[in-house]
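Subject: for your reference before the review

Hello V.,

The reviewers asked for a structural picture of the protein, and I figured it would be easier to keep everything in one thread rather than splitting it across files. Below is the amino acid sequence we used in the manuscript, unchanged from the supplementary table.
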Amino acid sequence: MQMKNLRAIGALLAVGAFAVMTGAVVFASGTLYYTGQGFTNDGTTWSLNSQRCGLAGQGVANDGGTGQFALNGFVLGDPYLVWVLTVNGASSATLSLPDEGIVNMYKVGGTFKYASKYYSPTQIIGIVYATWTGGPNRATLTVSHGCPPRDGGWCSPGFWLNTLNKSPNAWNTIGVTPPGPYYNDVIGPSTDPSGPAATGSPTLLDVLQNKAAYFSAPQQGAGFNAVGAYLTNLIAGYSFDPALVGTEDSCPLDAFGNFK
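And here is what came back from the structure prediction:
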């Protein structure tokens, strides 16, 4: 009996050695906890490596090919994370999230993906985990990209006009080259932020410099402020907050375009 056991153990060791030498993978189910891939910590704060909010200068927002944006009514600028589990050969996978519980991930090529609400790293590291069936016992779980929540802000039209006297300036920070796009191409009654239609084809800078030339008297203030709101929305991590209009120190940038 002892000799048979030794032979069995030897056979198992031989199979293991063969797997190591040839790179063979033993297929099985598995569980993997998230350890922070996709975020960077500078010693004090965490930041998302790839921010794609779908707004100008902030990449193309996408749900990783899962189709979830269309299902969930995603709006550009909404906060989200895209999770990617890479595990070739698996037949299915789930993801355990703090608020949503266990959800089914979507198979996309050799990966499984899921677009969730945004979570801070402290909410998910060592807490979120993925499980899979039918694949190898090795996998990676990462956040490929997303859009963090944005703080409210308001940089007035006067701010955007006066900063052009500095070098560098706030237009450089948001990635817009003066005079900017045509006003009517980016602002209108149905846009967010909204504004009245302008007469003619003024650029954003045209409106800032001479609003009376492009709007009737009752609409001049609204058109002028709409330019400020539009440009504020392009500041990474911030969005225009109507409640801040007219308040002091509501712009997160200084005249040179540096974050305060």
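For the response letter, the relevant points are probably these. The chain has two domains: 30-147, 151-244. DSSP finds eight helices and twelve strands in the chain.

Happy to draft the paragraph if you're swamped.

O.
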